[in-house]
Each structure stands twice: as structure tokens, then as C-alpha cells.
Automatic annotation (TrEMBL):
Record keywords: Cytoplasm, Lipid A biosynthesis, Lipid biosynthesis, Lipid metabolism, Lyase
Gene name, Swiss-Prot/TrEMBL: fabZ
Function, in words: Involved in unsaturated fatty acids biosynthesis. Catalyzes the dehydration of short chain beta-hydroxyacyl-ACPs and long chain saturated and unsaturated beta-hydroxyacyl-ACPs.
Annotated organism of origin: Sphingomonas aracearum
Subcellular location: Cytoplasm
A GO biological process held by the record: lipid A biosynthetic process
Gene Ontology CC: cytoplasm; membrane
Known catalytic reactions: a (3R)-hydroxyacyl-[ACP] = a (2E)-enoyl-[ACP] + H2O
Family recorded in the similarity comment: Belongs to the thioester dehydratase family. FabZ subfamily.
Active site: 50
Record-given protein name: 3-hydroxyacyl-[acyl-carrier-protein] dehydratase FabZ
EC number: 4.2.1.59
Length: 149
């Protein structure tokens, strides 16, 4: 499946500014993998305090960006767009941070299915800057109905 623009990404994810961390999808192979982009800019709110004088994207937000890319992969692969189902983080394993992510880069998010079931999926992901791994993690997510209002 070819590129997905921000409208299609927003159709797959419930996240909105400032928590939407996927700007576009470059490639999506249903039931297999996704390659997405997060444009990291100095305008991100977290750079005000992390860290003044040496802005670095927090590792937890890099992992969240990977999880959001995985959410798009799961929603598109399982045909859940418009269903109201949500993809909830359940576990993060073996997270490693290899290099700082600074403003002005395109963070490439590569995620693949490790295991896919109807309600629980496992993923392996890595975030790259200029082809070099900045972070990697394995994680598990659950597909479920949104909480009752």
C-alpha cells in the first residue's frame, strides 16, 4: 500500500495535536510492516523543557511514535478504520536508545508484526535518523472498544 497522508493517519488513530506523532506513512504492507515519518521540529512543546540549550526528543515519545505507527499498521491490516476500536499499549520490552533525536530531523519509524491475533498483537520497531538507529523496542498492544463515556 502506498503513502498515507495525514488525513488517512488521523482516520486510523484517535490521537490529535500535541500527541499525534505520525505525520505520514511512506509504506504499509498489510499484515506485515509499516514505514512512517515523524517530522521533529523545534516547535514541539516538549523541547521547551527537554532540555533548554540542548533540545532532545524524550525517549518515551520516540517509543510512543513507534506505537502509533504500529496502531496504523494494526488498524489498516485488520480493517478497523472507522470501527471505533482503539489500539492500547500493553507492554514495552527491550527498549534501547542509541542516539539522541534532535529538532530538524525526519524520524523514520519502522515497525513490523511479530505476532498478530484478533485482540492482541506484538511488534518490533525501530526509529532511524539518516539511516542510523536512534531507538528500538518490542511492544505489545491490545485492540479493544473505547472506554464507556
Amino acid at each position: 500500500m502506498g503513502p498515507l497522508d495525514i488525513r488517512r493517519v488521523m482516520g486510523a488513530l484517535p490521537h490529535r495535536y500535541p500527541m499525534l506523532l505520525v505525520d505520514r506513512v511512506e509504506e504499509l504492507i498489510p499484515d506485515r510492516s509499516i514505514a512512517a515519518i515523524k517530522a521533529v521540529t523545534i516547535n514541539e512543546e516538549f523541547f521547551q523543557g527537554h532540555f533548554p540549550g540542548r533540545p532532545i526528543m524524550p525517549g518515551v515519545l520516540i517509543v510512543e511514535a513507534l506505537a502509533q505507527a504500529a496502531g496504523v499498521l494494526a488498524v489498516e491490516s485488520l480493517g478497523l478504520a472507522g470501527s471505533g476500536k482503539l489500539v492500547y499499549f500493553m507492554a514495552i520490552d527491550e527498549a534501547k536508545f542509541r542516539a539522541p533525536v534532535e529538532p530538524g530531523v525526519l524520524l523514520r519509524l519502522e515497525v513490523e508484526f511479530v505476532q498478530k491475533r484478533a485482540s492482541v498483537c506484538k511488534f518490533a520497531g525501530r526509529a532511524l535518523v539518516d539511516g542510523k538507529v536512534a531507538a528500538q523496542a518490542n511492544f505489545t498492544a491490545m485492540i479493544a472498544d473505547p472506554p464507556a463515556a
